[in-house]
Amino acid sequence: MLLVLDVGNTHIVLGVYQGEELIRHWRVATRVERTGDEYGALITGLFASSGMDSKAVDGVIIASVVPPVQSALVRGIRRSMGHTPMLVGPGLKTGMSIRYDNPKEVGADRIVNAVAAFRLLGQAAVVVDFGTATTFDLVGPQGEYLGGAIAPGLNLALDALFERTAKLPRIELNRPATVVGRDTVTSMQAGLYWGYVALVDGLIDRMAAESGFQPLRVLATGGLARLIAQDCRRIEIVDEFLTLTGLRLLYERNK
Predict the structure, then answer these.
(1) Do 7 and 63 fall within a single domain?
(2) Is the peptide bond before 152 cis (omega within 30 degrees of 0)?
(3) How far apart are CA 223 and CA 245, in angstroms?
(4) Residue 137 bears catalytic tag
(5) From CA 134, how far away is CA 199, in angstroms rounded?
(6) Same domain? 118 vs 216
(7) What's the pLDDT at 90?
(8) pLDDT at 91
(9) Regions of the chain where pLDDT drops below 70
(10) Residue 99 gets which letter from DSSP?
(11) Can you give the pLDDT at residue 217?
């Protein structure tokens, strides 16, 4: 079995593969203050609660945008499972040309998503990842990573409205029926939800025009992908496990 971990600023998504099949997955909160021992106990506990033996894992790969958590996970997995995880970063073979001015600046999750998207589609594509930040990554028709755009995530914008204003309340993110809200809550929901729908479609339109790629397929992933995709005319495919798939592909390429 292969254990894959996608470490984001808000959540860690873990998946277990048996061959190419994702047989179990979990989402836990990212906590910088957790020690390696705590992360090791957490992971083995997740296996045990699912009736699985963590000792049956024969490989681990991690993509992380939170360096302190990555270090703690590596220590915890070594102690609890006896494996030194493979890390997505410089030196790992991706099979993809990175056309960033400084390739080391590209988030590990963005490269993983690009690898998975090109394997899935085999043509030019944009990957939209709805995480703590909303990222847009452009993959060329030959499988090259060409860069992208980064915007604040929906929940980040939601928190900012509440924390940085005197009178706006903390609200739940829902899809409002109309763009024109009739009270404070629905007005905030309209601005956030329909604003992000317009943001996604608008940026993808501009990427398509700037790159000249035709056709240009669009995939979405991340926790809020299904919510936003229902009204985005440019999003064609929603794959909540795209990053986990990419991690499996990279592990197989480098093991």
Answers:
(1) yes
(2) no
(3) 15
(4) no
(5) 10
(6) yes
(7) 86
(8) 86
(9) none
(10) -
(11) 97
Residue tagged active-site, from 6, 109, 129, 137: 109
Structure tokens at 241: 């496990």
Cβ burial of 214 (10 Å; 0-12, 13-18, 19+) is exposed
Q: Please give the residue range of the domain that contains residue 68.
A: 2-87
Which one-letter amino acid corresponds to residue 15? Answer: G
Answer yes or no: are the C-beta atoms of 218 and 136 closer than 8 Å.
no
Rg (CA), the chain: 19
pTM of whole model > 0.90? yes
Q: What is the CATH number for 50?
A: 3.30.420.40
In the chain, the number of structural domains is 2
Q: Per-residue b/e over 60-88, b at no fewer than 16 CB within 10 Å? A: bbbbbbbeebbebbbebbeebbebebbbb
Residue from 121, 124, 179, 189 nearest 154 by CA? 189
Six-digit token string for 90: 């410089």
Residue 108 placed within a domain:
yes
76 near 36, Cβ under 8 Å? yes
